[in-house]
Design brief:
Blueprint (H helix, E strand, L loop, with lengths): L6 E6 L3 H16 L3 E2 L8 E6 L4 H16 L6 E6 H6 L3 H4 L5 E3 L7 H9 L7 E3 L17 E4 L2 E5 L1 E2 L10 H5 L3 E2 L2 H13 L4 E5 L15 H12 L5 E4 L9 H9 L3 E6 L7 H7 L5 H14 L4 E8 L6 H14 L3 E6 L17 H24 L5 E13 L5 E10 L11 E4 L7 E9 L4 E5 L22
């Protein structure tokens, strides 16, 4: 077997949950003697872990596959993995001539076997590995770490699939029903990540708050977190992503409020703020619950940061319904909001609903919503001025003046508890600070999405602004 044939190029598209699957496939390939390559020309196996959630993501995935197919050399294999593969199946080959294999979301752990099957055939036709059964978590995963590390942060997947009935979403059809991973396996991986120097553990699933339902657990997420804080008491930050409305329990709220490790941050995609729209979406439509629950959380965690997402222009959305969403946002003053215009998804219940909103109306409503949220976000950020926040340093950059000209100053870039990676804001700190450490920063400026500050002196392990620190010079917090 040639040197090149034992190497692979893996492009991961889509969300952090997809990234975890990509990292797991890479681990299995590495364990089978393959070597990762950053240059597709140097790899024997080309893999694209696709996203198929919305139309723009599908187009990006197909374009990436076509680009690799057009430059594919003799002997190279091109494999499509992930959500679009599961959703399109054999139809994907019509869009991407030159595709050798298709492997779906539910059997990513068979990637090494699929490569072997493709190579065992002298002139392989495309092979479709799309069984309907999901992995038997904890056994079929072949020991792959179900996490993706980015610097000092790591995404840890605690479940896959979804059993919610949202009318606009194809995830249950793509991923299957919700399957929770065994608690012992999750805790073991948390320890391994802690031992590897991870400072921030981000728990992810399609629906975190449904964790353990299939295992017969009541309040499974709270049970998992209680066990995790005991298992890794020295891991500084635990962040929760993707909670489902109506499933945030008093026990979970009390645990978040009592544990300094669990960040006072919650990503809870609400999708809309008008009851009639939510009913058509087949989403929880009890807005009183949202007001009461978020109020209770803020009472117990005054510093709580709430992130949510909304869909604008869902079929049948009237101007009155959209105004209801705007009022909902004014009332609850979310720290972070992501907004998306409705994307038509064939095969979902929403696709057959009447009264689709024109694209220009959706775009105008999206602009109005984001303009409103920018004012709220700025005010929430301004409230941080004068506070000292712990900031996880992720990199360095060059300071600029008001006209964008570079200055002879280095700044550090990091995130506070209020900021999840990639989707939220940053904290810009004067001076060069050690990457991968959590340092206290006094906030002195606020922008719409970001904050600025200086290192807080007088804290334990006194930090001198402007000094360059090396590994071990600052205490791990």
């Amino acid at each position: 077997m040639t040197h090149r044939s034992q190497s692979y190029f893996l492009l991961s598209l889509g969300c952090a949950k997809n990234t975890v699957d990509s990292e797991s496939m890479a681990q299995l390939l590495n364990g089978a003697g393959f070597r990762g390559e950053a240059d597709p020309d140097r790899a024997g196996v080309l893999i694209v872990n696709t996203c198929g959630f919305i139309d723009s993501a599908r187009r990006e995935s197909i374009e990436a596959l076509r680009d690799l197919a057009s430059h594919k050399r003799k002997g190279q294999l091109l494999i499509a993995a992930g959500c679009l593969s599961q959703r399109a199946g054999a139809g994907l080959v019509k869009d991407v001539p030159g595709l050798d294999g298709v492997i779906g979301t539910r059997r990513w752990m068979d990637i090494v076997d699929l490569v072997g099957r493709l190579r065992a055939r002298p002139h392989p036709e495309p092979i479709y590995h799309l069984p309907t059964e999901a992995a038997t978590v904890g056994s079929d995963e072949h020991g792959a770490l179900r996490a993706a590390r980015e610097g000092a942060s790591a995404y840890l997947k605690i479940a896959d699939g979804c059993r919610r009935p949202c009318a606009f979403c194809a995830i249950p059809a793509i991923k299957g029903t919700a399957v929770s991973r065994p608690m012992d396996a999750i805790l073991d991986e948390a320890r391994r990540l802690r031992d590897g120097g991870v400072q921030e553990l981000i728990l992810i699933a399609q629906d975190l708050t449904d964790y353990g339902h299939d295992l017969g657990l009541k309040d499974g997420l709270a049970q998992l977190l209680e066990a995790m804080t005991r298992a890794v008491p020295d891991l500084p930050w635990i962040r929760l992503m993707y909670a489902y409305p109506g499933a945030v329990t008093p026990r979970l709220i009390d645990l978040m409020a009592a544990s300094p490790q669990i960040l006072p941050y919650l990503d809870i995609p609400l999708q809309h703020g008008h009851r009639e729209t939510l009913l058509r979406m087949r989403r929880p439509a009890n807005l009183d619950w949202v007001y009461r629950t978020l109020g209770a959380m803020r009472d117990k965690m005054p510093d709580l940061a709430i992130r949510t997402t909304f869909i604008v222009g869902y079929p049948g959305e009237t101007e009155d319904e959209f105004e209801g969403l705007l009022q909902f946002v004014r009332d609850l003053e979310f720290d972070r909001v992501g907004a998306f215009t409705y994307s038509f998804e064939a095969g979902t219940p929403s696709a057959g609903q009447p009264d689709h909103v024109p694209a220009e109306v959706m775009a105008e409503r999206h602009e109005r919503l984001m303009l409103l949220q920018q004012g709220i976000s700025l005010a929430r950020n301004q409230a941080q001025v004068g506070r000292t926040l712990d900031v996880l340093i992720e990199g360095h950059g060059q300071a600029e003046d008001e006209d964008g000209h570079p200055l002879d100053e280095v700044i550090s870039v990091g995130r506070s508890y209020r900021d999840a990676p990639e989707i939220d804001g940053y904290v810009f700190v004067a001076g060069e600070l050690p990457v991968g450490r959590i340092v206290p920063v006094r906030i002195d400026g606020a922008m719409v999405y970001d904050l600025t500050g200086t290192v807080q002196t007088g804290a334990p392990g006194v930090i001198v602004p402007g000094q360059i620190y090396g590994p071990g010079d600052l205490p791990v917090r």
